[in-house]
């Protein structure tokens, strides 16, 4: 019985910390996001990297739309990192005013592709690097916003990744879109509002070119390269800003099986880098007062956000017959956790949500549980998230 009491105490402390952490940043995410103050009026030269692994179905249209920026055409170059692409696709890409870096690794990873792209451009004196996925579409002012943040002195910036209009998504994709919005609120806006680094999301990222080239030399992630990248940047003392107005439309996962595999990859990366960096984070905080880096390492060991309310509800119910005190503790934490989600979901998404979404929640929770089982395999294998064909709505340049 003592062992059970100790287990419940440890669970309450661990899950409770996750709840309070999330709730705290859900509240700070309501604060106004600091706006950059430009120090100069210089237009910087950008390399826009589009990582494309077997993305024959979407990459041509994505490359075309990447060229449609309200930014001097001579000051940015679209660079497609073509890994294992068909010859017919390469031929179509060569008709566009872009740079193509072809590659074919025996074991492909995004970090390898980016290093190849950097190596191909290091002699061209770019000021900034943009990282996109093959399904991403930059809003027309994205590069202007990127330039504004770099002019304010930031060398690492996360743009706002967001879904296309929810009316164009199925129920699984809508939940994925809501999850992205929650991450933006808590891990980006909530941190940036109080002077801490935003998360990196893998795409929609903006970097000082030389800094990016330097740090990427040490990034060898199989999955979750963005997690290793943000840890290495904050360890170096770099602050990661959140550019809410630098918008990138990102295709959401519509297939529950792909949803599970993607979350498994993310969880594997989170806990892998949590184990690798938590000791460094604690030491940096104690010895040098590095709060930002320490905070990033703490994020890596938090309970998964999608599974946290489920675990709390199960524990509250399971403890009810024999320990009312712990049942009340877990029930209270569950309510606080739900409150943090309510604060983080944008009002527009509450209005768009329907009871059909709620009916999908049990399936998505099940897929999230499957993702936990997939963690060991995901840590060793590169899983590619397939993307659907891009359809451009009339008079609009967005993903649907």
What is the C-level CATH assignment of the largest domain?
Alpha Beta
- How many strands, what sense, and barrel or not for the largest sheet? 8 strands, mixed
Question: CATH homologous superfamily of the largest domain, by name?
Answer: Spore Coat Polysaccharide Biosynthesis Protein SpsA, Chain A
Structural class of the secondary elements?
A: alpha/beta
In CATH, the topology of the largest domain is named Spore Coat Polysaccharide Biosynthesis Protein SpsA, Chain A
Name the beta content range. 5-15%
Identify the strand order in the major beta sheet: 3-2-1-4-7-6-8-5
Overall tally of domains: 2
Summed over residues and divided by their number, the pLDDT gives a mean of 87
Rg calc: 21 Å
Please give the CATH architecture of the largest domain: Alpha-Beta Complex
Order of helices and strands: HEHEHEHEEHEHEHHEHHHHHHH
The poorly predicted ranges are 389-400
Distance between the termini: 55 Å
Question: Can you describe what's shown?
Answer:
This protein has 400 residues and is of the alpha/beta class. It folds into 2 domains: 2-30 and 270-378, no CATH class; 46-255, Spore Coat Polysaccharide Biosynthesis Protein SpsA, Chain A (Alpha-Beta Complex). 52% of the residues lie in helices and 12% in strands. It has 15 helices and 8 strands. It has helices spanning 2-28, 59-66, 87-93, 110-121, 142-151, 171-192, 209-216, 225-235, 256-288, 291-300, 308-319, 324-344, 347-352, 355-373, 375-378; strands at residues 46-53, 76-83, 99-103, 128-133, 137-138, 156-162, 205-208, 240-249. An 8-stranded mixed beta sheet has the order 3-2-1-4-7-6-8-5, with helices on both faces. Strand 2 (76-83), helix 3 and strand 3 form a beta-alpha-beta unit. Helix 8 (225-235) packs parallel to helix 9, helix 8 (225-235) runs antiparallel to helix 10 (291-300) and helix 9 (256-288) packs antiparallel against helix 10 (291-300). The longest helix is centred in the last third of the chain and has 33 residues, at 256-288. The radius of gyration is 21 Å and the shape is globular. It starts with a helix and ends in a 22-residue tail after the last helix.
């Amino acid at each position: 019985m003592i062992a059970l009491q100790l287990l419940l105490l440890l669970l309450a402390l661990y899950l409770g910390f996750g709840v309070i952490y999330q709730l705290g940043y859900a509240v700070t995410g309501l604060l106004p996001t600091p706006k950059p103050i430009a120090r100069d009026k210089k237009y910087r030269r950008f390399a826009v990297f589009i990582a494309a692994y077997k993305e024959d179905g979407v990459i041509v249209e994505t490359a075309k739309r990447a060229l449609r920026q309200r930014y001097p055409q001579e000051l940015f170059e679209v660079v497609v990192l073509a890994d294992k692409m068909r010859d017919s696709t390469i031929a179509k890409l060569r008709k566009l005013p872009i740079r193509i870096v072809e590659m074919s690794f025996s074991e492909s990873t995004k970090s390898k592709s980016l290093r190849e792209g950097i190596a191909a451009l290091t002699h061209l004196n770019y000021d900034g690097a943009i990282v996109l996925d093959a399904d991403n579409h930059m809003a027309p002012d994205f590069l202007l916003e990127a330039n504004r943040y770099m002019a304010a002195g930031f060398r690492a910036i996360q743009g706002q990744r967001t879904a296309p209009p929810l009316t164009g998504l199925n129920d699984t994709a809508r939940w994925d879109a809501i999850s992205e919005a929650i991450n933006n609120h808590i891990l980006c806006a909530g941190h940036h509002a109080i002077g801490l680094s935003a998360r990196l999301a893998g795409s929609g990222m903006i970097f000082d070119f030389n800094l990016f080239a330097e740090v990427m030399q040490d990034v060898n992630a199989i999955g979750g390269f963005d997690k290793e990248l943000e840890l290495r940047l904050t360890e170096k003392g770099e602050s990661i800003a959140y550019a809410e107005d630098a918008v990138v439309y990102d295709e959401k996962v519509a297939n529950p099986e792909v949803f599970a595999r993607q979350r498994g990859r993310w969880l594997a990366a989170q806990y892998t880098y949590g184990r690798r960096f938590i000791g460094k984070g604690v030491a940096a905080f104690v010895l040098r007062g590095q709060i930002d880096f320490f905070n990033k390492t703490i994020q890596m060991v938090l309970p998964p956000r999608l599974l946290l309310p489920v675990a709390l509800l199960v524990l509250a119910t399971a403890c009810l017959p024999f320990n009312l005190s712990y049942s009340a503790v877990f029930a209270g934490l569950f309510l606080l956790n739900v409150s943090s989600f309510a604060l983080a979901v944008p009002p527009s998404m509450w209005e768009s949500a329907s009871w059909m979404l709620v009916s999908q929640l049990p399936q998505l929770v099940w897929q999230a549980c499957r993702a936990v089982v997939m963690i060991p395999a995901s840590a060793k294998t590169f899983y590619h998230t397939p993307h659907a064909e891009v359809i451009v709505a009339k008079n609009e340049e967005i993903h649907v």
